[in-house]
Amino acid sequence: MKFYDFLDREPAIGKLVVIDGTERVLADRALEVLLDRLLPPEVRELNLARFSAEEAADSGRIAEALQAMPFLAERRVVAVTETQMMRAQPRRELWEVAQTVPEGNTLVLMDLLAPRGKGPQSFGVLAGRSALRIDTTAGEETRARFIEETLARLHAKAEPRAIAELARSKAELVALRNDLEKLALTGKKITLADLEREALSLEDPKAYRYASALAEGKVAEALEIAYESFELDPRAGVALMSALATECNYLWELARPGGELPSRAQWRERVLRPIARRTGERRARRAYERAVGAIESIVTGRAGSTSDEQRALVDRVTVEVSSVLLVRPSPIFSIARRSTIR
Fold first, then answer.
1. pLDDT score of 201
2. What integer is the mean pLDDT of 216-233?
3. Integer CA distances (angstroms), 216 to 37, 82, 160, in order
C-alpha cells in the first residue's frame, strides 16, 4: 500500500514488512511509525535489533535475531535497512531467512528500489500479498500532502498554485522540504514567484564556498567564510546549512553503489567522488542529517532567536561534520568567540 494509506488505515502488522519505493524521507518515517506501533518506548531497546546492509550480508545473524524470544513485550522486531545495496547472493540468503520468521516476531526490510525499476527485483514485489508492503514512491497526491504537512510543521502558508507546482515537480521530497524551510523564514505566504526565484537562483556564493571548503577538509577556511557571511547577514545560518546539506547529500549519493550526481552538479564529481569514497555512505548520511537538523532547528526556533545563537550552531555543526567526514579539523576559534574578539 501507499505510504499515506499505511498511516491512515493502520493495517495489521504481521511477520514481514517491506518498505520499498524511492523517497527516503518517507521510508525513514514509515520505519519509525512501524516501531511506534509495534514496540512501546519502555521495551523497545530490549526487543529491537537493527542491521545495516553490510551487517545483513551474514544472514545467520538475522536468523538468530529473529529466533530470539520477546522480553516483556508481545513481539520482537528486526529491521534491516539499505537492503538495495546488497549483492545478489546475500539478497537471496536474506530472502530465504525472511520466509522463516517465527509467529509473534516481525522482520522489516527497507529496500529502496522502484517497484518496477531496473536492477534487482524489490523484496516487495517478491513478497506479494505475503507481507505488508509500504510503497514510498511519491505521486502528485502524495507530494501534495507531504507539502501541506511540511507547511503546517513550519507554521507557514503557500498559495494553492505554488503547492500544485511543487506537487507536479520531479524533485526529491527532501529537496522540496529544504526549499520550503528556506522560504518559510520570510513569514509571508509563499507564492509561485517565490518558488520560481528559489528554483532559478544560484546557490549563495559564500554559502557554497563554505560547504565546498568543509567537504574538502578546509575547516578553518570554512569557518572564516561562515564568519564573513554572518557579518553581511546576521541570519546567514539557513543559507550556510542549506548549502552544507546539499553538499553532503551529493557525497551521500556518490557513496552509494552506482550513485550519480544530478546533471546540474556533475561538474563537481571529480572533487567529490574521492571524498565520498573515503567517507562512506553511513558517514555521509550522518553529515547530511546533521545539516538538515540544523536547518530545522533554525527555522523552528529551537536554535534560538539571536544571531549569536545561529553562529554558535553553525560553529558546532561545522566541527561535527568535519569529524564525520573523516577530516582532521584545524585549530580554530569558535565563530561566537571570534565575533567578540573582532
1. 43
2. 90
3. 42, 26, 41
Q: Is 3 helix (H, G, I), strand (E, B) or coil?
A: helix
* Dist. CA 246–CA 288, nearest whole Å: 8
Closest-CA residue to 82 (of 91, 73, 74):
91
Cell numbers 552538479 correspond to what residue?
265
Q: How many residues comprise the chain?
A: 342
pTM reported for the whole predicted model = 0.62
pLDDT band at 326 (very low <50, low <70, confident <90, very high): low
Q: Which residue in the block uniquely carries the three cell numbers 568543509?
A: 214
Instruction: Say if residues 329 and 256 touch (Cβ distance below 8 Å).
Output: no
Contact indicator for 129, 14 with CB cutoff of 8 Å: no
The secondary structure element, H or E, covering residue 44 is: helix 41-47
The residue type of 177 is R
pLDDT band at 204, cuts 50/70/90? low
In whole angstroms, give the CA distance from residue 310 to residue 334.
12
Cα 240 to Cα 207: distance, rounded to the nearest angstrom:
5
- DSSP symbols for 253-312: HHHSTT----GGGGGGHHHHHHHHHHH-HHHHHHHHHHHHHHHHHHHHTTT-SSHHHHHH
